[in-house]
């Protein structure tokens, strides 16, 4: 049976595109069952539709407006994902932190892409923080990783990591561009590795 992947996004979806391309060219032997976005205007939804992949918009706002909790949102999101019976759930630029209430529905098969090395620059704005740390002389390089998701943000077991140089002449945009182009290879490679160990 071809493994099924559910992908969660919040924005541009350039990493989603890398997965779509690697499924299309046979590098990743899997089916993308659905792309779920918490934002209705995420460009990644257009990328999914262009590739004839079903999409679901699953925003937090209606929950807040109805006085429901974040835990209720997380549980309903988990239930929505489980409808697709996925082998793997990929967070590809998903900007919500997922709680233990979400993760308890899954068996260590949720993975995330993070633009920093393990234990460095957890959470948001990791690239800006690495750039600043380089300017202050506290780091010589940064990196990116694909890791399993646990309740502690960006602290789960790494599946693949890659060091990425920072050059003295780099602007922040240069560094962002370098990291993103590496992420576009690292995430498909991380998915391949995960699937090979199923
Ligand atoms: C990536 O840099 C990823 O590491 C971070 O969010 C960004 C998503 O970019 N978690 P995109 O939406 O895949 O273009």
From TrEMBL:
Matches recorded under InterPro entries: Formyl_transf_N, Formyl_transf_N_sf, GART
Keywords for this protein: Purine biosynthesis, Transferase
GO molecular function annotation: phosphoribosylglycinamide formyltransferase activity
The UniProt record lists the keyword Transferase: yes
Class in the EC hierarchy, top level: transferase
Ranges where the Formyl transferase N-terminal domain occurs: 4-189
Enzyme Commission identifier(s): 2.1.2.2
Pathway this chain belongs to: Purine metabolism; IMP biosynthesis via de novo pathway; N(2)-formyl-N(1)-(5-phospho-D-ribosyl)glycinamide from N(1)-(5-phospho-D-ribosyl)glycinamide (10-formyl THF route): step 1/1
A Pfam family annotated for this UniProt entry: Formyl_trans_N
Domain of life: Eukaryota
PANTHER family associated with the record: PHOSPHORIBOSYLGLYCINAMIDE FORMYLTRANSFERASE
HAMAP family: PurN
Protein name, UniProt field: phosphoribosylglycinamide formyltransferase 1
């Amino acid at each position: 049976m071809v493994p099924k992947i559910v992908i969660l996004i919040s924005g541009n979806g350039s990493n989603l595109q890398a997965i779509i391309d690697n499924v299309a060219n046979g590098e990743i032997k899997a089916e993308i069952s659905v792309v779920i976005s918490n934002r209705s205007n995420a460009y990644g939804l257009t990328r999914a539709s262009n590739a004839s992949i079903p999409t679901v918009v699953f925003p937090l706002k209606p929950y807040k407006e109805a006085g429901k909790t974040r835990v209720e949102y997380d549980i309903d999101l988990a239930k929505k994902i489980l409808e697709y019976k996925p082998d793997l759930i990929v967070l590809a630029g998903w900007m919500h932190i997922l709680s233990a209430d979400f993760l308890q529905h899954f068996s260590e098969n949720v993975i995330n892409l993070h633009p920093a090395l393990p234990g460095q620059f957890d959470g948001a704005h990791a690239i800006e923080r690495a750039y600043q740390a380089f300017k202050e002389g506290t780091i010589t390089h940064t990196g990116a990783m694909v890791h399993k998701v646990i309740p502690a943000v960006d602290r789960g077991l790494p599946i693949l990591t890659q060091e990425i140089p920072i050059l003295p002449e780099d602007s922040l945009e240069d560094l962002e561009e370098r990291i993103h182009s590496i992420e576009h290879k690292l995430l498909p490679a991380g998915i391949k590795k995960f699937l090979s160990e199923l």
